[in-house]
Structure formats: structure tokens, C-alpha cells
Specification:
alpha+beta, 4-stranded antiparallel beta sheet, 487 residues, globular, 13 helices
Length: 487
């Protein structure tokens, strides 16, 4: 019998299990070193998690690297195509487990889908989001596919199993959230979703239906699946990811007047890259490429001129930074003063403003004054301020809240005071008049915080071809928060 045939015959035979003592003697020094490194990393992770029961999992590492009681590599005894297939399965599973832990506890990639943070971040920027800076959340929905947020591609099913649900717990971080930080978080009103219409969200849809005379929006939405699709509930950490800038911190009082922000009564300087929609009166159309030259994206550019019904003047409605505004004012086609939407009063900005259905008279450029909830702080609740804090108390912190006979009841008990369990934040986009942010859906609870983007690792302009500037080379490895040091 040839040597090759003897090798094939030996590979087809079941692996002989050596005694433990002999197995230990046969382990190479390099394997002991790998086991030591992995054990050290695992021990540091257990200390970080603060749960000594996790040390029991170390026994699995001992068996994988040392004792081998469980035949982890049984597939290596197979032959031919079966061995190749199981080899790929083993490699993919190992990679997915590694990705799961990296995405959960270290960081994750994120793509900018909208222009709400231009010019700080552009549509098509791919960011690396640091989860360790604020301390990563322990996955609340631990059984999920790590590469998809909530929906599997192609097949369209959920990318997670809803149970078990773990309580919110955040590991120690390097620092807390600071004003001016750009933060990635789970969309606070993303708990209930109409799958066919996810922007605006379910609550905004219900509010609009009620304003249009629909008495029972929930029943109407459920009765029209062809329009709205299936209504699903998503756990906190499986909701859509949003990215905005931190404006207000826990315990602060916030006021917005004529697009100016005041924190605890003091005016807060705007970021350099902040944009407002300006009404730009013109005597003639302006070519698209001239808008592009000063940095206006096609998404933000209205290519058709609008004629004011009252004055008959032509105008554009375009977001500009202060620097861009100064350039536009010098163009010969400009026929008047550039004013923001808020300054002109041309648009009704009140419907849909936080809190939905309020009668405070607030609008997008004029809100508050309101207090941002802080963990451990107690608030005196009144029928007047309850709409501002009702969702935080009822939904984010899981209490039963109702008003009976003019009195506020929390968990069945009359109570005019509530002590908050979580910190909350006020988030806004830099592209102020084209940003769905806290002015529409209110506070962001701390358990929704994902992390902060650190740098741009790739950037693609969706309006350009591959050979016409699609790849923005000048943005690669750029800071994801160029305005942070200016606050």
C-alpha cells in the first residue's frame, strides 16, 4: 500500500482520544502562549463587565485550547467537499463571533444617510463609531446578527430574536458626553414602526392622521397595510441609528429663540459649520454648478425656482453656512436681502413640534424654556409641564402614568413628584432647518446612546460617477467632529 493511500485511510478513521496527561504533554508552547493571551483578554473583559459569574466561561477556553474534551474540530476528520464546507462554516462562525464582540464593546462602522449634519458630516461618509469612550452598553438584545441593525437583507426578516431582553447596563467609559459631541444613538421614537413608511415615524403619522380628522389613527393604520405595511415593535438597541450633535446636557435649562440657543440663560455660540435655510431672492436662475462650487449638495438644492404668491419675486430656499452666505450675497443675480426661514415667517413651523399635540405655541426656531431630565433629580409635575416629560416617564422609564380628576397618578398612586432614573440629552443637527431632531421628538435617554464617531474611513458622493469625483479622497481619515474644539 502506498504512503498516500495509508494517509487517506488514516484520515478516514475516527480520531483516537489520547489520555488527558498525554494531550497536555503534546501541546505546543505557542498554543500555551495563545491561551495565556486569550485568558488575559478574557479576564480583563470580565473585570470590565463587573460580573464574576462570567468567569465560568473561562472553562470553555480551557477546553478549546488545552483539554479538548469537546471535539471542537471534529470536521477536520471529514474528507473532500464536506471538509471544505465545514472549514468555511467554522471560519465564518469564528469571524461572526469576533465581529459581535468588537461591534458590541469596542466600535462599529456607520454610514451617514442624510444631510442633517452637513457640513460637519456629508451624505455618504462612512464613520468609525467609538463605543468605548462613553462606555459600551451590554447588548440588551443579545441574540442578533452582528452585521445588520434590525432587518436581514434579501429575506427581509428580523435580524434579532427578541427574547431574552437584558436590563440596561453600561460599562465604565473614559468620559461622559460633552456639549458639542456628535453622538450616534438609537432613534427614541423608533420603538413602533410602520415598515412601509418609516420617515416620518409612526407617532408623527398618527399625529398627522388625527389632525386630518381620523379619530382612531392606530386602527386606521392597522386597517391599511397596503399603505403603511406591518406595524412592528423594536427593542431599544435594535432601533434605527441616528447621529446628531449634543446641545443640551442633563439638568440644564434650554431655550431656543429665533434659532439662537440659550443654556441656563446664556447664549450658546453656534458651530462654525451650522447651516440655516435662507430665502434667496434672485432676478434670474443660477446654474447648478455654481451652487456646487460653494458646497451646496444636490439634496439641498431646489433646482426649480419658486415664485412668491404675494410679491411675485423669484427665490431659492437653500441651506447655507455663514461663509457660504457671504459668497452668495455677492452674486449679481441676488435681488434682495438673504433671510432665514424663521426671519421671513413664510412657513408654518409649528405642527409636529415636540411634544406632539402641545398647545405651547412652540415652533422649530422658538421653543422652551424646558428642563432636561437628570438621573436622580426630582421634578414637580403639573398638568402644564407633563406633556414635556410624559414619554420619558411612561415609555423610557417604564411607568404607568395617567391623569384622573385633575390629579397625576404614577403606577396607580397620586404623585406630583417624579425622580428620574436616567440621564437625558438634547440633540440637534447642524443643518438646522433640514434636521429631524430633538425639536420634533424630544429628549434622548442615556440607554439609547451608542457612541461617538471618531473619523471618516471612507466617503462616497452619490451624485458623482466613479471617474468624476465619487470617492472623496480628501475626507478619508478626517475627524468626524471638526467643530468639537470650537464649543
Amino acid at each position: 500500500m502506498s504512503r498516500l493511500n495509508r494517509t487517506e485511510e488514516r484520515n478516514q478513521q475516527p480520531e483516537r482520544r489520547l489520555p488527558l496527561k498525554e494531550r497536555l504533554q503534546n501541546i505546543k508552547t505557542t498554543r500555551w502562549i495563545r491561551f495565556g493571551i486569550v485568558s488575559l483578554i478574557f479576564l480583563l473583559w470580565v473585570i470590565w463587565m463587573g460580573n464574576p459569574w462570567l468567569l465560568l466561561l473561562w472553562l470553555l477556553l480551557v477546553d478549546i485550547y488545552i483539554t479538548g474534551f469537546i471535539p471542537w474540530t471534529w470536521w477536520k476528520n471529514t474528507t473532500g467537499a464536506q471538509r471544505v464546507v465545514w472549514g468555511w462554516v467554522d471560519a465564518i462562525l469564528y469571524a461572526l463571533i469576533l465581529v459581535y464582540f468588537i461591534f458590541a464593546f469596542i466600535g462599529q462602522n456607520y454610514m451617514i444617510p442624510s444631510s442633517s449634519l452637513e457640513k460637519s458630516l456629508l451624505v455618504g461618509d462612512y464613520l468609525w463609531v467609538n463605543k468605548a469612550l462613553y462606555g459600551p452598553r451590554v447588548p440588551q438584545t443579545p441574540l442578533h446578527f452582528p452585521l445588520e441593525q434590525h432587518t436581514m437583507p434579501i429575506i427581509g426578516t428580523k435580524s434579532y430574536i427578541e427574547h431574552p431582553q437584558l436590563p440596561y447596563h453600561r460599562l465604565p467609559g473614559l468620559r461622559g458626553i460633552q456639549r458639542g459631541d456628535i453622538v450616534v444613538f438609537n432613534y427614541p421614537q423608533g420603538d413602533t414602526v410602520a415598515l412601509k413608511i418609516q420617515n416620518p415615524d409612526y407617532y408623527q403619522i398618527s399625529y398627522d392622521l388625527k389632525r386630518n380628522g381620523v379619530e382612531n389613527p392606530k386602527a386606521y393604520i392597522e386597517a391599511n397595510p397596503d399603505i403603511f405595511g406591518e406595524i412592528v415593535y423594536r427593542p431599544v438597541d435594535r432601533r434605527e441609528n441616528y447621529v446628531k450633535r449634543t446641545i443640551g446636557l442633563p439638568g440644564e435649562r434650554l431655550l431656543i429663540r429665533n434659532d439662537s440657543i440659550f443654556i441656563n440663560g446664556e447664549y450658546m455660540e453656534q458651530p462654525t459649520n451650522v447651516q440655516f435655510n435662507y430665502i434667496i431672492p434672485v432676478s434670474a436662475p443660477i446654474a447648478v454648478d455654481r451652487w456646487e462650487e460653494i458646497g451646496v449638495s444636490l439634496d439641498d438644492f431646489n433646482q426649480s425656482l419658486t415664485r412668491d404668491d404675494l410679491t411675485g419675486r423669484l427665490y431659492y430656499d437653500i441651506p447655507l453656512t455663514g461663509e457660504m452666505k457671504a459668497k452668495v450675497e455677492k452674486w449679481p443675480e441676488i435681488s434682495g436681502e438673504l433671510l432665514t426661514e424663521a426671519q421671513t415667517g413664510m412657513f408654518n413651523l409649528a405642527p409636529g413640534i415636540f411634544p406632539l399635540g402641545n398647545d405651547y405655541g412652540w415652533s422649530r426656531p422658538n421653543m422652551g424654556e424646558l428642563w432636561i431630565p437628570q438621573r436622580g433629580a426630582t421634578l414637580h409635575l403639573t398638568p402644564d409641564n407633563l406633556p414635556v416629560y410624559e414619554r420619558a416617564i411612561r415609555v423610557y422609564e417604564g411607568n404607568d402614568l395617567e391623569i384622573k380628576d385633575g390629579k397625576i397618578y404614577i403606577n396607580g398612586e397620586p404623585n406630583e413628584y417624579y425622580t428620574f432614573k436616567l440621564d437625558y440629552y438634547w440633540m440637534m443637527g447642524d443643518n438646522r432647518d433640514k434636521s429631524a431632531d430633538s425639536r420634533y421628538w424630544g429628549f434622548v435617554p442615556e440607554d439609547h446612546i451608542v457612541g461617538t464617531p471618531m473619523f471618516v474611513f471612507a466617503s462616497f458622493d452619490k451624485d458623482k460617477s466613479l471617474f468624476d469625483g465619487k470617492i472623496r479622497w480628501n475626507r478619508i481619515l478626517k475627524s468626524a467632529n471638526p467643530d468639537k474644539g470650537k464649543w
